[in-house]
């Protein structure tokens, strides 16, 4: 597997750091998808499995700059409503966290359960579509 896929998609290209991810997003004009998770969190593990096994997600993920983090960054933008895992944020190439692309839980806006995997897929499509219409 490529470095730092940590099981989320071994054939995908994952950036190593938040700074690198921002740089790449800005320069490639691709949206950035950040997955915050913890190795020993059962929710993270379950979501990872669903994500890795979802063929369409894995294919669509190639259009994103990808980063998965097992630690919290000090950037407050990345925890707009708290530091819970797993959470998935989309950031556009203008380096804005998309507060309009959220999951289904009002108390944890960026949380996804394995049962929400099709919602995550449509949110990924939405992130790519927004990019086309806004730029």
TrEMBL record:
GO cellular component, as recorded: endoplasmic reticulum; extracellular region
MF terms (GO), sorted A to Z: dystroglycan binding
PANTHER family, per database record: ANTERIOR GRADIENT PROTEIN 2 HOMOLOG (PTHR15337:SF1), ANTERIOR GRADIENT PROTEIN-RELATED (PTHR15337)
Top-level division of the source organism's lineage: Eukaryota
Protein family membership: Belongs to the AGR family.
Subcellular location: Endoplasmic reticulum; Secreted
Cited CDD domains: AGR
Entry keywords, A to Z: Endoplasmic reticulum, Secreted, Signal
Gene3D superfamilies found in the cross-reference section: Glutaredoxin (3.40.30.10)
Protein's UniProt name: AGR2 protein
